[in-house]
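Bug #2210: token dump truncated for Alternative ribosome rescue aminoacyl-tRNA hydrolase ArfB?
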Amino acid sequence: MTEDLVVTRTLVVPAAELSERFSRSSGPGGQGVNTADSRVELSFDLVGSPSVPGWLRGRMIARLEKRLVDGVLTVAASEHRAQLQNRAAARERLARILREAAAAPPPVRRATKPTKGSQERRIAEKKRRARTKQGRRGDGGWD
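Reproduced locally. Full output below:
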């Protein structure tokens, strides 16, 4: 899998900037788990990458600061028995994480006052609820 990692239409991580490590998966799996290096760790140096624009790098680093170790983002995949499937899963996971980190921030919400109609609906609902609770009282009135 020496293909470039397509994160978005504008952000493509070259295969040369990705590094893969293989190791044995943990857990049950029979004899194959003891011999096959099917677990995959995919690493990407976000801080030192020339393929990420500077304006985008700052946003991504801020959003991924808890996941980065010395500026490197690492993703592991060991859910499949085959190394090839784990490689594909790790690439998909890395692309999703980078895509979420690169997403534009949501628009800032401007606070507005409630409309006259919404205020009237709220008061009418409060009165209806009060009448319902008043009917549950033993004396049948306000006290």
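Output looks complete on our side. The domain at 5-102 is CATH 3.30.160.20 (Double Stranded RNA Binding Domain). Marking as cannot-reproduce; reopen if the truncation happens again.
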